[in-house]
Amino acid sequence: MVSLQKWKEARPCLIDNILATLDPLSHRVCQCGKQVVVRCLDCLPLSFLCAECDIAVHTRFVLHNREAVTGGFLQPSSEFHKPIVRLLPVQRPDHVCDCPAGNVEVSPGAIVALVTINGCYNLALPVVSCTSCDLMWSPSVKDILGSGYWPGTLNFCTLFSMDVFQSFYDIKKAAPGMSLKAFVKMLDERTAHFGRTGRISADAFSKSFVEWSAV
Ligand SMILES: [Zn+2]
Ligand SMILES: [Zn+2]
Ligand SMILES: [Zn+2]
After folding, report:
1. Can you give the pLDDT at residue 158?
2. Which terminus has fewer CB within 10 Å in the chain: N or C?
3. What is the pLDDT of residues 177-208, one digit of tens each?
4. Separation of 57 CA from ligand 1 center, angstroms?
């Protein structure tokens, strides 16, 4: 009862403060001094970024979920996700041959849909190549598994983070009646919530999950 009363007393203060966070944010400046265009809660404590810092930071941290600051308000938007070429975060070599350093180029290869606990991300597999001898590297099954992903299809069109399988495994243990469809639906909601696109196939999730648990 005491605890209920305390929550009741705190409520107006919580409401005021949550409303205050919805105030126009256009007056905010990035740490570099330029005008803010996105907020990224995964970048806390430096969550407000200008366009240039956004690209610099999120070309590297591609799984961060950002909100666009448009007209002073925050909204998830798929539009502003587009300009950045986003490569699957996967272990990769810093050279592919014995040519002198400085000839290495990292570029986007085949498109891949990565499914994590935050839903689906459309990314590209990285290709590391040498500009003088044209030798190329792209991730093998070993690199994919070593980076914490499980193939959803054998040609790597879809990858699941093993963490999302672990989460489903844990929730099934706590609540055996939990349906796989409901879990996948929750992941689809996460995808849309963060302004991304893509649907997760419950069938692919199920088949891949069974393989993962068997192994
Ligand atoms: Zn971030
Ligand atoms: Zn900046
Ligand atoms: Zn070379």
Report:
1. 96
2. N
3. 999 999 999 999 999 988 889 999 999 999 99
4. 7
Counting ligands in written order, the one closest to the CA of 84 is 1
- Domain boundary assignment for the chain: 24-84, 110-126+137-214
The total of other beta-carbon atoms located within 10 Å of residue 42's CB is 13
* Tokens found for residue 173: 């243990």
What is the arithmetic mean of pLDDT over 142-154? 93
- Phi/psi class of residue 21: alpha, beta or left (left: φ > 0; alpha: ψ in -120 to 50)? alpha
> Tell me, what amino acid is at 191?
T
Query: Is pLDDT at 99 greater than 80 in this prediction?
Result: yes
Residue 138 Cα to ligand 3 middle (Å): 15
**CA separation, residue 7 to residues 3, 10, 129, 183, 205 (Å):** 6, 5, 58, 31, 40
SS3 81: helix
SS3 assignment, position 189: helix
The Å distance, Cα 15 to ligand 1 centre, comes to: 26
Share of the chain above pLDDT 70, in %: 90
Give the Å distance between the CA of 100 and the centre of ligand 3.
8
Question: What DSSP line would sit under 168-183, residue for residue?
Answer: HHHHHHH-TT--HHHH
Ligand 2 mean position, distance from CA 25 (Å): 15
CA of 22 to the centre of ligand 1 (A): 19
